[in-house]
Task: inverse folding
DNA sequence: TGTACATCAGTGAACGCGCGTTCACTGATGTAC
DNA sequence: TGTACATCAGTGAACGCGCGTTCACTGATGTAC
């Protein structure tokens, strides 16, 4: 049985996406080429065009999966306690862990040049869902500590920016004195954010 | 007088950098090519190699200038009061303003793929200086409100991440419900960060 | 159960493009005498 | 002041590369009769 000799691949679409994911982590978002993907999957250069209209569609498909995985990673709470505080900490840490473990994918997802959300409905929707997960866990935490429940747009932006910024800086190695255990820093930073919110809530 | 016909350009190095800056904001970091720069400056394709060893050196030179400008922008404090709190707010807002006004340059400066800091001594040094400006204004602010003066690595990372993350999300248009006046959000977010620190300081 | 046929995933060659970089060269400049 | 010459910024052609995409095609598949 030589599956690589078959005329019809079987599930080329899935194979291309799988290969694209691998290339993404190997060479980064810029390193992906349809020709390269086709070669990896042992298929002619034009074969991918039976499943995708163009390169942008492939990139969008990958980014879509990326947002699903990001959601999974955020919801994989560390502890098991249904404590809103721990839950929010888990979401924040999950966000950063996802970025560190899938740097290429993360960069792709958050690069306007590479994937323009607005043009692809499904992608836009999934990115919104990822954001909703983050926002809801923030709101639940606020509620738990007795503070004005739906976070203001400003607080939302501050919380999201903190996690996203730290992920970005760690990824691009732009943090002065880069930590040898990045996730330790991630936990420390999210922990400090939570403490700041808590102490400010006690005043209100 | 036809300066474009001269055999020797005069100051090709500066002209290339200037042209690169323009291309950066027009097409983004990926859109820059040495050939394109040469063409813009009306010079042969190989001419740039009299001033730069390769493309990486051009990118590094631009990024270097970028960090200098970032420092200027951070130090262009809004008010005139030598108030450490206002100063820190100005630094944070300056950081985000710089990113919004020079998106291509900002992305280049913080992209590990495009410019590897570690390999270029001068660049590394200037990026460190930019970070120092930020850290010092944070420390001054902490001092002013009577809190443990040199910020812990965790607090440094949180502060830097907040500003950087917000800049990045605004730049890549990844903030849900993108604000029509981004700098208003920038001021609100930095303002909230400062308030959180102040209220937590009152407890200690 | 057997055969004609429509479908469409995959082929292979080609189009046209832009890129970084090298190399032998040329011509302007300014310095030493 | 005038001239020989070293220097080196800039030329132009070429090398070799990888890319996205198109197009007429072929061969496997499965359905209708």
Result:
């Amino acid at each position: 049985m030589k599956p690589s000799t078959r005329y019809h691949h079987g599930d080329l679409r899935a194979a291309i996406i799988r290969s694209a994911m691998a290339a993404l982590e190997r060479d980064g978002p810029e390193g992906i080429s349809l020709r390269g993907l086709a070669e990896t999957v042992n298929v002619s250069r034009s074969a991918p065009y039976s499943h995708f209209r163009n390169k942008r569609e492939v990139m969008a498909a990958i980014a879509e999966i990326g947002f699903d995985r990001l959601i999974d990673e955020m919801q994989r709470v560390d502890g098991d306690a249904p404590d809103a505080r721990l839950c929010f900490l888990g979401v924040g840490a999950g966000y950063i862990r996802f970025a560190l473990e899938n740097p290429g994918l993360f960069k792709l997802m958050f690069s306007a040049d590479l994937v323009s959300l607005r043009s692809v409905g499904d992608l836009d929707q999934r990115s919104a869902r990822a954001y909703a997960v983050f926002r809801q866990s923030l709101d639940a935490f606020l509620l738990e500590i007795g503070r004005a429940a739906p976070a203001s747009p400003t607080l939302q932006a501050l919380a999201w920016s903190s996690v996203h910024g730290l992920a970005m800086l760690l990824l691009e190695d732009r943090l002065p004195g880069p930590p040898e255990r990045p996730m330790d820093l991630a936990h420390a930073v999210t922990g400090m954010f939570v403490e700041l919110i808590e102490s400010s809530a006690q005043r209100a």
